[in-house]
Write a structure and sequence with these properties.
By secondary structure, the chain is an alpha/beta fold. It contains nine helices and nine strands. The protein is globular, with a radius of gyration of 18 Å.
C-alpha cells in the first residue's frame, strides 16, 4: 500500500511543464490534455487561454477536478498573440521552479508521444533546447497543402540564411527549454508576438551559446478547429528577421 502511495505521489510531482496556449480549441483541448497525462513520464500541463469565447477555459476548469495536481490554467483577458501567451507561461513556470518547459500546440499537430523524446534530449542527452523538427531529416509534414509546406520550409531556409543559425526548423513551435535558458533570455525584451516569436526565442538562445539540438518529428495538420496563421503573422516574420539580425543582442 505504501509503495503504491509513493508511486502515486511521484507521478503527481513533475520536473516538466507542458504549456498549451489556446484560443477557441474546445474541439481539441480535453483530448490533448488526456493524451499528455497518458504518457509514461509524468508531465504537468499549463493552459494559457486568451478568453476563448467557445468555452475552452471552462472545459479545462472541469478537467481540473479530475487532475487537481497536474493541470493548471491561466486566463487572460484578450487575444494578445502566441508569443505573449508563451511568455506568460514561461514566467509562471519559472516561478514554480519547473526544470523543463515545453511548448506544444493544442490541435495535435504536435504528437504528445514525442514529449518524452524532447524531454530526454534535454534531461539525459544534455541539450539546453530541444526542437521538435519537421525538417532536420527530410520534410516530415502531413496533411498540409503543398503551398503551405513550401512556405514553411523556405521560411526556415530564409531565416537560417539571414541569421546564420545552424537550425533546420527555425519556425518550429514544439520546443523543450531548460529553465536556465528562459531565465537567461530577458523575456520582457522579446519583441515578436506571432510567427516570428519562435524564431526570436531560438535566435536568442543560440546567441547566448546554449546547446540546441533538433529531434526529428512528424508534424500533422489539425483536423478540428481553425488555424490561427495569418498574412500579418507571416509579414512579421519576413521583415522582423532582418531587423533582428541587424540589431543582434545587447552587448
Amino acid at each position: 500500500m505504501y509503495l503504491c502511495l509513493d508511486l502515486y505521489e511521484n507521478y503527481m510531482k513533475s520536473d516538466a511543464l507542458v504549456i498549451i496556449p489556446t484560443y477557441n480549441e474546445k474541439e481539441n483541448i480535453e483530448a490533448i490534455i488526456r493524451a499528455t497525462f497518458s504518457q509514461e513520464k509524468a508531465f504537468h500541463v499549463l493552459v494559457v487561454d486568451d478568453n476563448s469565447p467557445d468555452g475552452t477555459a471552462e472545459i479545462v476548469e472541469n478537467l481540473q477536478k479530475e487532475f487537481p495536481s497536474q493541470l493548471f490554467i491561466e486566463k487572460r483577458k484578450g487575444k494578445n498573440g502566441l508569443g505573449t501567451a508563451y511568455i506568460h507561461g514561461f514566467k509562471w513556470a519559472i516561478a514554480q521552479k519547473y526544470d523543463y518547459i515545453i511548448e506544444m500546440d493544442a490541435d495535435f499537430s504536435h504528437n504528445p508521444n514525442d514529449l518524452i523524446r524532447l524531454y530526454n534530449e534535454c534531461a539525459i542527452e544534455g541539450a539546453d533546447v530541444a526542437i521538435g523538427s519537421r525538417y532536420s531529416v527530410g520534410v516530415n509534414v502531413v496533411n498540409w497543402p503543398m503551398s503551405r509546406v513550401l512556405l514553411s520550409y523556405f521560411a526556415s531556409k530564409y531565416v537560417r540564411l539571414i541569421t546564420r543559425m545552424p537550425i533546420h526548423d527555425t519556425t518550429a513551435g514544439f520546443v523543450c527549454y531548460k529553465r536556465k535558458v528562459l531565465e537567461t533570455i530577458k523575456l520582457d525584451k522579446v519583441k515578436f508576438v506571432g510567427y516570428a516569436f519562435q524564431i526570436e526565442m531560438k535566435y536568442k538562445a543560440w546567441k547566448h551559446q546554449f546547446n540546441i539540438k533538433e529531434v526529428s518529428v512528424i508534424f500533422t495538420d489539425r483536423v478540428l478547429g481553425k488555424s490561427k496563421l495569418s498574412k500579418g503573422i507571416i509579414k512579421e516574420a519576413v521583415f522582423g528577421v532582418i531587423k533582428m539580425r541587424i540589431n543582434g543582442l545587447p552587448k
